[in-house]
Design goal:
By secondary structure, the protein is of the alpha+beta class. It folds into two domains: about 60 residues; about 110 residues, no CATH class. The protein has five helices and four strands. Strands 2-1-3-4 form a four-stranded antiparallel sheet, covered by helices on one side. α1 packs across α2 and α3 packs antiparallel against α4. The longest helix has 28 residues. The protein is elongated and about 95 Å long. It starts with 11 loop residues before the first helix and ends with a strand.
Length: about 190
């Protein structure tokens, strides 16, 4: 037998090593992207903003850049929706979305994200905002067995340093600003 031996196909140890290398590179990229997403909340450096070009499409595709502005460095006020649903028998049901009694906590967070989206939508796209508000009112009427519902936007402002030094509770009613959204009628037919 003359000639060279053919290259063996990629077998066990080499294939495993290649897979580990690819997974390690992806994991390093993923973690770096999460760090860039958290660091890109204004005010941010030029380096972080330029890094966004590398990581932004990946983070947006997997929706990994959402929510960091809620935690720092300067979170804004939170938005809740208060409602009063009137039933046909004259009784009424009042509540807030999200309700603190919601379990599991992840569901509470989803409702909170809904109200935050409504708040940002109100300024950005009033037409879509009205569509979503009517859908929310219809769902509340169904859930409460009501014929009409009134909705209000509650803005929960963050306390200042004076408030914190006085050790006042975070859920004090003076921390909320209420803005009526509207009253909506609904019938089952």
């Amino acid at each position: 037998m003359t000639g060279e031996l053919p290259e063996p196909p990629m077998c066990g140890p080499r294939r495993v090593r290649l897979v580990k290398c690819v997974v390690s590179l992806w994991l390093a990229y993923h973690v770096a992207g999460i760090v860039v997403a958290a660091a890109s909340v204004p005010p941010s450096s030029d380096l972080v903003r330029s890094s966004w070009k590398l990581f932004g499409p990946y983070l947006q595709f997997f929706n990994l850049n959402n929510g960091f502005h809620f935690f720092g460095p300067d979170p804004g006020p939170s938005t809740l929706v208060a409602f009063t649903a009137e039933r046909a028998d004259g009784t009424s049901v009042t509540g807030r979305i999200p309700d603190r009694a919601i379990v599991p906590r992840l569901l509470y967070h989803r409702y909170f994200m809904l109200t935050e989206a409504l708040a940002s939508m109100q300024e950005a796209n009033p037409e879509v905002f009205q569509f979503h508000v009517r859908a929310l009112a219809r769902q509340l009427c169904r859930r409460c067995g009501a014929k009409a519902v009134s909705l209000s936007r509650l803005t929960h402002n963050l306390p200042g340093m004076d408030w914190c030094r006085a050790l006042l509770p975070l859920d004090d009613p003076t921390m909320y600003e209420e803005q009526p959204i509207g009253a909506f009628q609904w019938s089952d037919s």
